[in-house]
């Protein structure tokens, strides 16, 4: 797969550190003379993302956090406008992070097809009491962590007939592995087919715009 | 006001520590060799609540966290079934914590009128970069931190005609001080009047149950 060299460098270093059992830590809250260690999973993904920015500086790796906060991408890979997204999940549960908001993704991909080439760096952690341990790191493209579902061509989070987010496949599981998409194209087709079924429309403006902007 | 002796002991100790500038700290996240200090306000209230449990043990104060997690109360004051609630807000913004979910409170107060006597320990903090500093502590009863609003006899958080939470008065502000309720009774009347206006009903079952259970 065509990952960015900088992403591969990050992935290689972090995988090695994880294998050697070096990516261990946690969250400590202090006020005055008393400190507590936090045993909650809330916000771990965001903490790891912030931490990666500091780790990258220490390791001389040239990525910049997106100052926009919540919005895509988490990091810019400098100089050539590539994107790096950070995800994390508890290996003792299953991958339940949001890949992206479904409708925003349909739209933003249509204006900016290069979003399809974003690299996803994914951290699999275990939380043992308050000790956080990164056991595994993956480097993926979006079509390598997404799949179809029974209800829609693309697996999404839907509640009461409203689609919220694109949800991940279980690409990492030996027991319950789901079939991920084979190509970027398969993913894009599933994305816009899902949109057309969802909105009950025959033609998706976003899909047409995506193809126009891809040809440029 | 009739605060519990244990609450007053906690309040006196923490106020003194805050005045002396000793309640300073923050949140640190570590993985391997890199640590980051967190500059976000997310979850500070919950962290302070957890921290208080540890602080109490160190100070020989006999309170027990509610193992139920999210539900009322945050702490039991041991031996006599009293309640201690913990709230926190950023002094540079305004008090925007949820006192309680409106409908749950209407109901639970009706079954357990002693909830009205819960003590509220409130932390006013400043966050300067990643440095958290408790500047001020208050010990209050619910009617001393709540007030009426233009729309309802009780100030609540309402979105699109749905009432979510009971929201605090600005009891702490010299500039924008709101008039809090004078008595527990005034608060209870405002609570159930709001419920009757909100649900467009003439008689509140919860209010009647509250009075029956209070008389016992």
Name the features.
216 residues, 3-stranded antiparallel β-sheet, ECO RV Endonuclease, Chain A, homodimer
Characterize the main sheet of chain A: 7 strands, mixed
How many domains comprise the coordinates of chain A?
A: 1
If helices are DSSP runs of H or I spanning 4 or more residues, what is the number of helices of chain A? 5
CATH topology label of chain A: ECO RV Endonuclease, Chain A
CATH C-level class of chain A is Alpha Beta
Mean of residue pLDDT of chain A? 93
First-residue to last-residue Cα separation of chain A: 23 Å
Return the CATH architecture of chain A. Answer: 3-Layer(aba) Sandwich
In the sheet with the most strands of chain A, the strands line up as 2-1-8-7-5-4-3
Shape of chain A: globular
Q: What's the quaternary structure here?
A: homodimer
Name the structural class of chain A: alpha+beta
* Helix content bin of chain A: 25-40%
Q: Provide the succession of SSEs of chain A.
A: HEEHEEEEHEEEEHH
Are there runs of chain A of 5+ residues with pLDDT below 50, and where? none
Number of extended strands of chain A: 10
CATH superfamily of chain A: DNA mismatch repair MutH/Restriction endonuclease, type II
Topology readout:
Two copies of one chain form a homodimer.
Chain A: H1 5-19, E1 24-31, E2 34-37, H2 44-58, E3 63-65, E4 75-77, E5 82-90, E6 100-101, H3 102-111, E7 119-128, E8 131-140, E9 156-159, E10 162-166, H4 184-199, H5 205-215
Parallel strand pairs in A: 5-7
Antiparallel strand pairs in A: 1-2, 1-8, 3-4, 4-5, 6-10, 7-8, 9-10
Helix pairs in contact in A: 3-5
């Amino acid at each position: 797969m065509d990952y960015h060299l900088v992403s591969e460098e990050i992935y290689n270093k972090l995988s090695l550190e994880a294998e050697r059992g070096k990516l261990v830590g946690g969250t400590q809250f202090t006020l005055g003379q008393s400190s507590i260690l936090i045993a909650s999973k809330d916000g771990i993904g965001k903490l790891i993302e912030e931490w990666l920015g500091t780790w990258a500086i220490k390791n001389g790796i040239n990525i910049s956090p997106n100052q926009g906060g919540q919005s895509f991408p988490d990091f810019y890979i400098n100089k050539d406008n590539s994107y790096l997204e950070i995800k994390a999940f508890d290996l003792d549960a299953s991958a339940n992070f949001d890949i992206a908001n479904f409708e925003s993704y349909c739209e933003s991909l249509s204006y900016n097809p290069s979003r399809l080439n974003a690299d996803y760096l994914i951290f699999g952690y275990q939380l043992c009491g308050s000790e956080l341990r990164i056991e595994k790191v993956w480097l993926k493209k979006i079509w390598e962590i997404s799949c179809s579902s029974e209800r829609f061509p693309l697996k999404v989070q839907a509640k009461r007939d409203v689609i919220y987010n694109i949800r991940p496949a279980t690409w990492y599981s030996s027991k319950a592995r789901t079939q991920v998409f084979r190509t970027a194209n398969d993913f894009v087709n599933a994305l816009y087919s899902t949109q057309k079924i969802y909105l009950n429309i025959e033609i998706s403006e976003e899909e047409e715009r995506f193809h126009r902007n891809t040809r440029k």
